[in-house]
Every structure is written in C-alpha cells, then in structure tokens.
Amino acid sequence: MVHHSRRESFSDMAGSVVCPDTDLLWPFGKLDGLDRDEIRETAYEIFFAACRSSPGFGGRTALTFYSKHNGGDNQGDGAGGGSGSGFGSVGRKEVVTTPTSRVKRALGLKMLKRSPSRRMSTTIGTALGAKSAPSSPGNGNMGGGGGSSLHISQGAGFLTVPPSRPRRPLTSAEIMRQQMKVTEQGDTRLRKTLTRTLVGQTGRGAETIILPLELLRHVKTSEFGDAHEYQIWQRRQLKVLEAGLLLHPSIPLDKTNNFAMRLREIIRQSETKPIDTGKASETMSTLCNVVVSLACRNNTNQGDVCHWADGYPLNIHLYVALLQSIFDIRDETLVLDEIDELLELMKKTWSMLGITRPVHNLCFTWVLFHQYIVTSQMEPDLLGASHAMLAEVANDAKKSDREALYVKLLTSTLASMQGWTEKRLLSYHDYFQRGNVGLIENLLPLALSSSKIVGEDVTISQGSSQEKGDVKLVDSSGDRVDYYIRASIKNSFSKVIENMKEKTAATEEGEEAAKMLLELAKETEELALRERECFSPILKRWYSVAAGVASVSLHQCYGSILMQYLAGRSTITKETVEVLQTAGKLEKVLVQMVAEESEECDDGGKGLVREMVPYEVDSIILRLLKEWTEEKLKTVHECLSRAKETETWNPKSKSEPYAQSAGELMKLAKDAIDEFFEIPIGITEDLVHDLAEGLEQLFQEYTTFVASCGSKQSYIPTLPPLTRCNRDSKFVKLWKKATPCTASGEDLTNLSGGAPVICDGNHPRPSTSRGTQRLYIRLNTLHFLSSQLHSLNKALSLNPKVLPAARKRYRERTNSSSYFDFTQAGIETACQHVSEVAAYRLIFLDSYSVFYESLYTGDVANARIKPALRILKQNLTLMTAILADRAQALAMREVMKASFEVVLTVLLAGGHSRVFYRSDHELIEEDFESLKKVYCTCGEGLIPEEVVDREGETVEGVIQLMSQPTEQLMEDFSIVTCESSGIGLVGTGQKLPMPPTTGRWNRSDPNTILRVLCYRDDRVANQFLKKSFQLGKRR
C-alpha cells in the first residue's frame, strides 16, 4: 500500500507532540505501533462493518455484483463504476443528486454547486490498477498521474463495461471508499469476508463483533497478491488487537492476566512469520479464545458488547480518521456536500468506538480547525465552522453528567486550539500583515470562545455552580483582547530590539547607543501608527480602547529601554539630551493617541493614561545635569585635595609664575563651564548659579589654602627687657677697643637657611630665601586666580543661552557685579596677608643680618644703613622679577612697612648692643631718608612718594624724639604717662606707673618715649630710670 507524504502517522503526531507540517499540538494522546495508513484502513473497516446493514454497504445484491465475472449482467443499473456498489434499487436510494446539506448551512459552509454528474461512476474500460491509491489531499491528485481523469472511480480495475454505458452518481459507500483511499481489492475483500462471516446475522450489532479477529479467521492468503502483502495485513490486524486489548483497553487490565500474556506471546511470534489461521490451527484457536476473553470482560450489564476498539486514545484516533474523510480529496479546503449522510453513517460506529455526542462534537470541532491549518489557512470558512461547533462544545461542557474521559479530551483539545490561536494573537504583528490582517476577525472569536469554555470548565470542575465560594475564572473578551494587544506589542517591540541588540551591546556606553535609542523611538512611533491603521479597527469590535492599550504598551516598552539606557549615567551629554528630548516627543504622540482613542470611554481614558508612567524628561535632564555638576565639582575638589598634599609653590615656567595647581584648577573650572553651555537644553540663571556656587566654594577653599602661610608675628623678634644705659659701661669700653667693621659681616646668614648675604665690593647678592620666593608664588597664584575669576564670570554672565531665573533669590543675586564676589573679597584679604608675611619674612628673617642684627650696633657712625640698603635693593629687584605686575605694588608697600618696622625695632628695642646719643639723630635721619628714597625710586613709581612719606611719619616722629634733650623727654614722658593712666599730676614722692608695651610705637606713646630714654646714653636719663622704675643696668 502506498504511503503518502501529506499526512504522517498519528503515532508520530502524538510522539512529536505537534501535528505534522504545523505547530498545532496533537491533543488526543500518543498511539504506539500503528501508523497513519493503518489507522485509516482500520477505521474504514470499522465504518464498513458498522454500516453493513445500510443501503449500499452489503446484502445479496452486493455479493452478486462482486462476482469474478466483469459484471456485464447488472440489469442495466449502471453498476460497475466506482466501488462496484450499485446494488439495484437499494443502492440507488443513496445517490445524492441535489445535495442541500443541513450541516453545512449550520456551520456556514458553502455548497460546492457542482453539476449532478460531478460524482459519477465511470464505465471506461481501462483498468486503473486496483492497488493504486490516491495521493494525499495536499497534492491535489491521486496515484501517479495528474489531472481530473485520476479522480475516476477506481472500481474499473474489476469491471469492464462498454464505453457507451452511461455514468451514474456515486453512492455514499462509494464516496466514503474514495475519501478513505481504500483500494477496490481491499474493499472487495472486506465485503466478501463480512458477507461470509455474518450470513444470517444481519441484525447483529457491530459492537458485538471483534472485527480484526473475524477478518483473521476468514481472510486467506490467496486473497492477496503475495504472501508478504498478507503478512503486512495480518500484522496490522494483530497490532490493532494489541492496541485495543493490551495497550489501551477501555477496561483497565491486570498486568498478570494470563490471557494478556498469551496474546502478547502470539503477537511476538507473528513478527517473524505469519500465524496459521486455518481452522485446525492451535495458535488460531488460542488467539480466538484469549481475544474473546479479553474483549468481553465485565460484560455483566452490557450483553454481548465487545471492548476492543473503545479504549482511549485508540478510539479517538480511529474516529478522527473517519471525520477527516469529509474533506474533498481534490481540494481539501472544501467540505463534501454529502457531509450529512456521511456523518449519519459515521454515527453507527459510536457503539464500537465508545463515542458519545459530546465527544463527537469535540472531535469534529478539532478536525475542522486542524483542516484549516493544514490547508495553509486558505479557507476562513473552516475556521468559522470550527467556531460554530464550539457553541455545541460549550453546551456540552456545561452538563453535569460529563465523563472523566470527556473532561480530559475537552481540556487537551481546547488547549491545543487555544494554544495555536493565541500563539498568533499574542504575536499578531508577526503573523498578520496588511494583506491578511482580516484573518484576525476569524481567529479572534475562536480564541475568545475557547478561552471562555476553558474558564467555565475550570469553574465547573471545582464543584457545582450553586455551591457557595466558587471562583469564576472566566476572562471577559475585553480582558483577553487587552492581553493579546499588550503581548503582541511587547513581542514586536522585542523583535525591533533584537535587530539592534548586537550593535547596542557593543556600544552601550558610546555615542552609537544614543543613535540606537533615537532609531528605536522612530520605530516605536511607526509601530504605533501601523497598529492604529491596521489592527486597531478590527480589534475595536471586541475592545473599544484597543489602540489606546497599544499606545500604553509601547510607552511602557520604550520607557523600560530608556530607563536601562539612563541607568548609571551621571554624565549628561548632547546625545543623552537628544535621546531624552526625542523620548518626550514620542511620549506626547502616544498620549495623544490614547486620548483620541479613549473619547468613548466612561472615564475618558484616564485609566489608561494613569498606566503611562511619565518619562519625566525634564526632571531627568535636571537630575542628570545636577549629577553632572556634582561630578565636575568633585573633579575640581579632587584637584584641590591633591594640591594641598603635593603643591610645592614652584612655578611651572617664567611665563606662568604661579602654582601649577592653580592652573589645573582653573582649567577644570573653565572646561566645566564650556561643557555646561554646550549641553543642548535651556540654561536658566538658576542652573548657572548652582554651578557658580559650587565653584565659588572650591575657589574660597583654595584661596584659604594659598593664604595659609603663617603670620608676620612669627618673624618679629622678641622684645628685650628694658634696661638703663649707663655711661662707659663695660660693653662700650670693649666695643671701643675693637676694630671698627667695614661691613656687616661675612658669615651672617638668615635664620631660615637662605642664601648668605655677601658683600663683594659693589656687587652684593640678594638675601631672599627660597621660602620667601615661594610666598611670592603664592601671591602670584592669588592674582592669577583673581584674573581667571573675571574671565569665568564673564563666561557665565554674558552667555546668550542663559534664560531668566525661576527662583527669586537668584534674581536678587544677579544684581551683584560678579558670581564670585565672595571669592574676590577673600582673594584681596589673602593677598594682603601673604604680602605682609612675605615682607616681614624678607626684612626680619632673610635680611636679619643687615638690619636687626647689625644696624647701629655699638656705634651709629660705624654701623650705618648703607650696606643694608644695597641688599634691600637687590631683594626688591628679585621680588619685582618674580612677582606679577599686579602683585608688585602691594608687595612693595608691605616691604616698605616691614623695613620701617625694623628701623623702629632697632631704635626702640635693639637690645644691649645699641646705645644712642642725642647727636646721633642726624645720622639716623639721614639714613632713614635714604631708605625712603629706595622705595620712591624703585619699581618706577610702584609706591607714590606721598604714601612713602605718610608711612614714614611714625619713624620720623621717633627720630624727632631722639633729637630732644633728656629733660624734655622726661617731662613729656611724665605728662603723657599721667594722661594715659588717668592719675593726673604726680605728687611729691609718688612714682610714675610703668606704661604698657603696645607695639604701636609713635612719638606720643609713653612706652615709646620710655624706650628712647632707655637707649639714651645720658647720666640724667640713667638716674631718672633708676629712680622711677628701678630699671637695672645693662650687663
């Protein structure tokens, strides 16, 4: 027998879970051992046996017709065509000439409307080969030939009728034989066997016949072309018995059943050679005994019913094979017009197969559905017919007397149908395009009906619907459609993502990732428009807000990808902003779609809109901008922290005479501001101030760091105790004996470890130490910082991208001249402080040997200021060479003040090595004028002469005190002391109070006058000091 490729074995279907050439699950269980052709042939045998008493299937007439002669004496009834089943007047009653199918009308199927001669038996005298079977329906032809000629009844292989004999319509029996693809030889053998077997038993029920056993008993090897063909046939009958009695019995079988064990043994023996079926065969006798015993178990209440083909899933496989015969083998998308008669005949097999009306409805529903799929979904009417049958299934499912097998079949069948339909509906964007989108109209009702039945079945399975506490698990149609839309949108969106996946993954942190997001936004909008144009008009019939739900789903899908893209991104870039702005535009489009499609909703679509969690693009941009600002400020702060640890205050070059850290700091700040304005968003004054405030805090901290260089007090020497200067003291005598020094000393070094002061003829070297020079670099750094702040402020305040402020406190702040006013004020204070410290260090430390240590030591005439001035000029020249132009004036002024201060210290707190005569004031005044002249002439007017004069007034006042007579000094001291202490005039015997040392020396300060007296080498002064304050002599 020829095997066809169109349909594979049912056992293969069950074993592979899905039906061949489809992705539809096979719901009727696995059947081992029997292939599709064997199932089909067995089904036909059962069908024929069940219908044997029906017109056209048996009787004496049939036996006469199938004589070994060629049937030329058929009394002119037109027999000989097709299967040769023209049974006189009886056979002609089954001829369908004008079919009007009630079933097709009920299922919405079209009538074929072919001419009455469409299904006619032919009397062409050409033998077509009795053994050839039609090809599968999918091939559209039969046997090995092509064209409609091959659809001629194949009974011609047994009957030769003159060509002039008229043709007649086919009987239902002939149609069924053709549809089941049974050869004439097999059909003839079956008819003869049943006739011989059941002679006189016309009224015997088909369910009392064990058909395979009867066929084995009565069919002989001689009826086959060869022994091998017979062996194949015999093996099929034994496998059917094995499946029905051993593998899938309707009544559970005990594993130790002796009959079953014996039957298995006989079946195993048949695998090597055919069993002897003769009357005298012991094997055949045993076979009959065990088969009857197994088939008739527990028949107490069922009479002679034999259970050999009613076990699941064998019975369903057989019955489905019968139902599939209703499709025209020449065009399998069409259902035969004779379906009513064929289904009525199939009903006769129910008792043999254990089929009930609900089971029939369920199988018929699935067969229609399956046929729609295997015919490439070309005929929507088949899907509609399956949907119509679901109404019957729904009614059956509600009945309370359902059998366990039916419940099992119902669940698996609906799961198969629902699984296939929902696979497409859950991804309808993939399965349906503009050309076939209308198929959704046919598929969706079936899916909803299946879903509803499944839901109701679950509820019923939980108990009686009247019981309290039942849980209704039925989804409404709207809920299901909502589910389909969301799932399909998500799947379609995922496909778009997959297309970009590799590229996106490879460049996730780069510029390409943003391009992918921009492209994805475009694709998302196109998907939304296609949904609204193609799918939503259809889906709205079941769900009014279909387009709105699709837009919501797309909004959620894109939002998820957007959040992934933004996750962990603290840097805002042009690309990121563009992505966010594009996302905002997409969001507006989707929200508008939801609003337009939700006008008819009770809530106006508010529920759907609430599902759309806003992208909050503006908030995200501000957040990213804030994080970006914090990151930039953090970078600047890290630079500041490094500077505190590593800054050496050495300039990078002569052209950049400031600290390297300052250059790095200001470059980072400038870059941050430049990048800030490159961000393609609306920059408001609020945002500018946020950045400026953060930078200003760092600048203030850096300014404080630069100014952290100590204080001038650390360089001012400790004032020696006041003593009275006695004439011709031991020190003076020793000093006079010593040789006067022509220089201030060769080995004098500043206390900081700086370069020694070397007087080499007329080329003295500067005494400025490294530490003092580093203070100059600090001062340069502060001025560099100040100039850079002006530039940064200009960049912030004059940028045309800046929008008006949104916060009032910033509007008030904008009236200020600069964003960095506080820092500028701090820089001014820091410059003053550093200049002062540098000046006191230069004079009191670096120039210690030529000023405080040697000036006027021993004898004024021999320790004049000229050597110190030469060193001072060199130091000032070096200072102006190092300092930036803007820093020189302040630094020079502070050096001047420090040098004036050191002169006062020498004159008023010079220690035991200094004494002054009244006559010395002229030399000292001359020296001071020389010192003032240095500042007036140095640096091309860095310090105006009037400033020098004003700063020198204090020193000049002290020099004037030194020029006064001792008596005058004593008198002035007494008056000033009394006035300052508030005691008035000093009475007889009353002592003057010791005036405090304030350090603010001037000619009207009592402590200053007292110190002039202490350093006056005069007997009167000595006596006054001894008497008034008991000051000790110098040692």
Task: Describe the 3D structure.
Strand 3 (651-653) and strand 4 form a beta hairpin. Helices cover 57% and strands 1% of the residues. The radius of gyration is 60 Å and the shape is rod-shaped. Helix 16 runs parallel beside helix 19 (439-461) and helix 31 crosses helix 33 (885-909). The model is unreliable at 1-16, 59-98, 122-164, 458-475, 729-762 and 808-814 (pLDDT under 50). The chain contains 38 helices and 6 strands. By secondary structure, the protein is mostly helical. Strands 1-2 form a two-stranded antiparallel ribbon. A two-stranded antiparallel sheet has the order 3-4. A two-stranded parallel sheet has the order 5-6.
Question: Any descriptors?
Answer:
single chain, 1035 residues, mainly alpha, two-stranded antiparallel ribbon, 38 helices, 6 strands, 57% helix, rod-shaped
Radius of gyration, in Å, reads: 60 Å
Strand content: under 5%
Shape: rod-shaped
Mean pLDDT: 80
Largest sheet: 2 strands, antiparallel
Query: If helices are DSSP runs of H or I spanning 4 or more residues, what is the number of helices?
Result: 38
Distance N to C terminus: 145 Å
Low-pLDDT regions = 1-16, 59-98, 122-164, 458-475, 729-762, 808-814
SSE-based structural type: mainly alpha
Helix content: 55-70%
Number of DSSP E strands = 6
Strand order of the largest sheet: 1-2
